[in-house]
Amino acid sequence: MKQPLRIAIVGYGTAGQALSVLLAREGHALDVFERAPSPGPVGAGFLLQPSGL
Question: 3-25, pLDDT tens digit by residue?
């Protein structure tokens, strides 16, 4: 196995969350930085079509 890396992820939106999970499963150390103090509604939606899976 390769040596684990220490990786910084800036932004914990959809892509940041997915990337965090994938990299953690590979054994890397992560630092996640998010501007918002806590999760909350943003007035947006997320739609994943079956063809996108």
Answer: 999 999 999 888 999 999 999 99
